[in-house]
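Both lines are given unchanged directly below:

***
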Amino acid sequence: MGMQLELFKALRSVKIDSTDAEKVVEELEGHIAMKVTEANAPLIAELRATREAISREVERTKWYFSTAIVIAGLVIAITNALN
């Protein structure tokens, strides 16, 4: 909020009408928000892709772990059956 207030005060100090000064501040805020959103878009896309990759790896790891448990159970069952 500090930057907006300082800009508003600066505009008012050079005799810009308060309504016009407020419009300038609002337009600048909108422009900054748009540029930040544009700048963050690739980062957000990368985060989403990373999250999806991690999710796939977690699912694969769960499958491996489940398979290992089943195999271990089979080995134990066969060993007990043979004894």
Notes: Residues 47 and 53 are 10 Å apart (CA to CA). The mean pLDDT is 94. Helices lie at 2-13, 18-82.
